[in-house]
């Protein structure tokens, strides 16, 4: 029996935008390939949390691993066009 989780269509739609933000926010060496990053969504300990603007467009994300003894933030990024407004801080405070 596998511990991998199913990935919903909605998550996949958000993932495309998350990967755009990730690519704009980190050097290429700091994140996996698109397929490698997508595969993480199936790990039960991995969470991808998004924040959307008033139009429903994803503007930030938090990628975190939840382990029994600790949480590990792998990535936190905000769309460069809306940085500096506290979105990243709110994501962390609300979810970690």
What overall form do the CA principal axes indicate? globular
Number of helices: 3
Q: Provide the residue-averaged pLDDT.
A: 88
Largest sheet: 3 strands, antiparallel
Order of helices and strands: HHEEEH
Uncertain regions: pLDDT < 50 for 5+ in a row?
none
The portion of residues forming beta strands comes to: 25-35%
Please state the oligomeric state of the protein chains shown.
single chain
Radius of gyration: 13 Å
As a percent range, the share of helical residues equals: 25-40%
Extended strand count: 3
Would you summarize the structure shown here?
By secondary structure, the protein is of the alpha+beta class. The chain is built from 3 helices and 3 strands.
Task: List the SSEs and their pairings.
Elements: H1 9-25, H2 34-40, E1 46-52, E2 58-66, E3 71-78, H3 87-95
Antiparallel strand pairs: 1-2, 2-3
Task: Give an overview of the whole structure.
This protein is 34% helix and 25% strand. The protein has a three-stranded antiparallel beta sheet, with helices on both faces. The protein has helices spanning 9-25, 34-40, 87-95; strands at residues 46-52, 58-66, 71-78. By secondary structure, the chain is an alpha+beta fold. A hairpin with a 4-residue loop joins strand 2 (58-66) and strand 3. The model has no long low-confidence stretch (mean pLDDT 88).
Comma- or semicolon-separated keywords:
globular, 3 helices, 34% helix, 96 residues, alpha+beta
């Amino acid at each position: 029996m596998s511990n991998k989780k199913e990935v919903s269509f909605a998550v996949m739609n958000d993932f495309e935008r998350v990967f755009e933000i990730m690519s704009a926010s980190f050097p290429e060496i700091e994140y996996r390939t698109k397929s490698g990053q997508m595969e993480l969504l199936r790990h039960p300990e991995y969470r991808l949390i998004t924040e959307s603007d008033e139009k429903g467009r994803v503007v930030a994300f938090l990628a975190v691993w939840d382990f029994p003894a600790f949480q590990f933030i792998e990535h936190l990024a905000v769309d460069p066009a809306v940085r500096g407004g506290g979105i990243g801080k709110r994501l962390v405070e609300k979810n970690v």
